[in-house]
Amino acid sequence: MDKRGIAKISCIFLLVVLFIGLVMGAIGNPGGGIESSYSLGEKIKGFVNISLESKNTNSKFEDSFGNSISLIDVLKKRSYNYSCNPANCESGYTTSGNEESQKTVPISGDKFIGLKLNGANLHVSSASLGFSSNAGSSCNSQLSLDVLDDGKINWENPKYTNDACGSELKSSCYNTFSEWASIDNNELYCEQINLPKAPAFELKTKLKYSGSSFNNGDIKAFIWDNGGFIAECNLTQPTSSGSDVSCNAAYSNKDAGNSYVCIKKESSAASGYQLNYRTTGSFCGAPGVPSSSTQHVADYNIIASAKKYDTLGSFNLDEQNYSKQNDGDSLTQGLDIYITENYNRDCSSGCVIPIKLSGVSQDLTVNNINLEYTSDGAPGGASKNTIFEVSKSPATVSSGFLKIDLSDLSFRVPNQQGEKTFTLNLDGVKIIESKINITGERKLQILQIYPRIIAVAQPTTFMVFTESDANNTNIEYKWNFGDNTGDKTSTSNKVSHTYSSLGNYSVSVKAIEKGQEIDSKTFIVDAISPKEAINETIADYKKRLELLTNQANNLSALYQPALRELIDLQEVNSELSSIETEYRQLIARGDTSDSEYVTLMKTLADFNMPISIQNRQVT
After folding, report:
1. What is the distance between the alpha carbons of residues 53 and 400, in angstroms, rounded to a whole number?
2. Three-state DSSP class for 17?
3. Rounded CA Rg of the chain
4. Counts for the chain of helices (H) and strands (E), in that order
């Protein structure tokens, strides 16, 4: 039992047909029931009755077979009646020390600061904070800010020096290059390179130029990542015999990983440019806009170098700087949504807005704090100009007696036959113990679903993968996609679904045979911006339009009038070109929000694109 006296577990013995009531324990009067007979690898079935009093949400259910799951993950699986503090069941924050208008915080690892607001019906209207650090220049990021402590880095040092960090960054296919290819207007030539965390990159390639007229910006370099172009710079003028040309792209890369470095000649530039490349050996490059399905067909002499982080000095976290590093998102709006989701706008007892500071050893001073808000007590507006250090603690959960369905734990028996002892604990406290018998063949088990990362507004076919030793017949699958659209049932292992909003969703799949559930599993699906999917869909539609045009042209002149009444291919081409133009404009802007891509993807999804034209005789 928790020695601090903050948690209590009570269990009541219940006897149910087909269930065993074997209960011995040190807490209260423990009890519950589980089924006694299982096939290999089958889920544990049964129940346990518990009550909770200020129990940490991250408490663990664990069994004697090595399975474990957090308490809150179990409670969220169905409509159990419980309450959390804070109400959203996420970690809470406690202020410590003095509330100050200027606070110096020693950083070495992770620290938390927070603004504490008071008032009912509270709305945040603006926010800004000033920072000053004595951290020097470094090849490693000196400081990152995670506003709201939600796991997303919202600010990192964007300043860089001209010093390079580490060796040149090349693709895994990089080799010698002896061929030269003319560069077409507005055509992209891209090489996949693993880019580390860095505040900026020098982008370099080898070009020839036989012309005489050169203007800054005639030829550009780009970084492409996560479905869009995120940085660009103007390359220097190459020589006629061939030379290295480069430029610095100011892109604060917060996550290391594969990106594409591309070059392009503007349509206004003179002709005569050639790119050093090769078409033999292994390839890591391709022409055109990159996508998740890009096929590498060439290798280009394109490399990059990471720049050094400059000294931090003084900087502000305000609406403008926040928006630059967060794809156009609003700092004020994010804080206001946080108050709504975590406190229901009721800050009568105080609402803490946390900021996680992570970095190397340094002294970080927080000053110039100004958060403006309105509340019932200050309808004309008020401001907060002070800050606390805060500590993070798990949320707690309380409830009356709950009958926990053990299938919600998704614990499975071993793949070994024989009599076993099943023991279930919560934070090391025994809740139930019973003998079970494992015999027979392994029933159908759900292993995985695919895909797990999908584009918003694009119809997606999901597949469930299973394994079984039994001859399962007439299996149905019941899907719930976690977006309040209800259940879908399929008689095969496939089903189609479209997400309308960005986010992470819990997708549950149940396998049902003759009306009985034989297995179920929950997966997390990430619905992301459809930037890549738009490009791929447009390319697919253009190929389809080309096929339709050829099919139409092969029709007899007798059928052409009837065809034009059914479909105007010129109009289809015009509408598709308009969508593609809008997409290119969004890409070129650089500050396009995910919601704008979602809107365009929905337009594409609603676009009535024919599949084929067929001439059939009817008798």
Report:
1. 8
2. coil
3. 30
4. 7, 39
Q: What is the mean pLDDT of residues 307-324?
A: 95
- Residue 421's φ and ψ, nearest 5 degrees, are -105, 120
**What spatial distance separates the first Cα and last Cα of the chain, rounded to whole Å?**
83
The phi, psi pair for 584, rounded to 5°, reads -60, -35
Query: Percentage of the chain surpassing pLDDT 90?
Result: 56
Return the closest-CA partner of residue 509 out of 540, 469, 482.
482
- Rounded CA-CA distance 44/434 in Å is 12
Cβ neighbours of 97 (radius 10 Å): 9
Token pair 């019941």 in the structure block, residue: 478
SS3 286: strand
Can you state the angle between helices 594-606 and 569-589, rounded to 10 degrees? 170
**Stretch 120-139: mean pLDDT:** 96
Can you tell me the distance from the alpha carbon of 310 to that of 314, in angstroms, rounded to the nearest whole number?
A: 12
Angle between helical axes of 531-553 and 594-606 (0-180°, round to 10): 20
pLDDT of residue 13: 30
* In contact, 314 and 130? CB cutoff 8 Å: yes
* 8 A C-beta contact, residue 597 and residue 584: no
Please say if the pLDDT value at position 8 is more than 50. Answer: no
- Residue 426 one-letter amino acid: L
Give the residue among 349, 321, 389 at the shortest CA–CA distance from 97. Answer: 389
Q: What is the dihedral of CA 404, 410, 411, 414, to 10 degrees?
A: 150
Q: Using CB atoms within 10 Å of the CB of residue 492, give its burial: 0 to 12 exposed, 13 to 18 middle, 19+ buried.
A: exposed
pLDDT digits (tens, 9 = 90+) for 559-597: 777 777 778 888 888 888 888 888 888 877 767 777 888
Sheet of 68-70: strand order equals 37-38, 429-438, 418-426, 60-63, 68-70
**CB 5: neighbour CB atoms within 10 A?**
9
* CB-count burial class (<10 Å; 0-12, 13-18, 19+) for 25: middle
Q: pTM surpassing 0.70? A: no
Query: What would the pLDDT profile of 349-371 be if each residue is shown by its tens digit?
Result: 899 999 999 999 999 999 999 99
Name, in order, each residue with C-beta under 8 angstroms of 137's C-beta and a sequence gap of 6 or more.
Answer: 161, 163, 308, 309, 310, 311
* pLDDT digits 0-9 by tens, 68-86: 999 999 998 888 999 988 7
